[in-house]
Specification:
72% helix, AhpD-like, 8 helices, 0% strand
């Protein structure tokens, strides 16, 4: 599946999502590596097989093997961290001061420059809704020289990819319900 077939899979009520997906695919404020990796990590965070397959097929070849591995690592480590740190942030108490005791070695040597890996981590954190992680990664990418426009572009991509997954999940559920009712 390609980006075009993914856009064509969206129903008419999601026309805005389709248009946003197309325009963000050529977002000029991000480098090619930042752009491609943001689409890949956002797809992985969406947990939708169709979206992930289409966006990996479209954007995976635009990344070096090392960068693709780093993007997958960002999605993986943030899937863990977003749950843990969202918990410590929301529950409070002693938890924020307790050692996490979770391995996060990939963050020290991710395989791409620190700013890019942090930008991808920010996109995943936006999809997963971890405020503490979003604040931390945004601060880090800005410290490394990325602009507010680059941060916004990354989060816009994450938001649209998440919306594509939500629409396709909803359509699949509706089709399954219709099938059950017909039986």
């Amino acid at each position: 599946m390609s980006l075009d077939s993914l856009k064509n899979a969206l129903p008419d009520y999601a026309k805005d999502i389709r248009l946003n997906l197309g325009s963000l695919a050529t977002e000029p404020v991000l480098t090619e590596e930042q752009l491609a990796g943001t689409f890949v990590v956002s797809a992985l965070a969406s947990r939708n097989a169709t979206v992930t397959a289409a966006l990996l097929a479209e954007f995976g070849p635009r990344l070096s093997a090392e960068a693709l591995t780093a993007a997958k690592a960002a999605a993986a480590i943030m899937a863990m961290n977003n749950v843990y740190y969202r918990f410590t942030h929301l529950v409070g108490g002693d938890y924020p001061t307790m050692p996490a005791k979770l391995r996060m070695n990939v963050m020290a040597r991710p395989g791409v420059d620190k700013a890019t890996f942090e930008l991808w981590s920010l996109a995943v954190s936006a999809v997963n809704g971890c405020g503490m992680c979003m604040e931390s990664h945004e601060k880090t990418v800005r410290h490394h020289g990325l602009t507010a426009e680059q941060v916004q572009a990354s989060v816009r991509i994450a938001a649209v990819v998440h919306a594509v997954a939500a629409v396709l999940d909803g359509e699949a559920a509706e089709a399954a319900a219709a099938e059950l009712l017909a039986a």
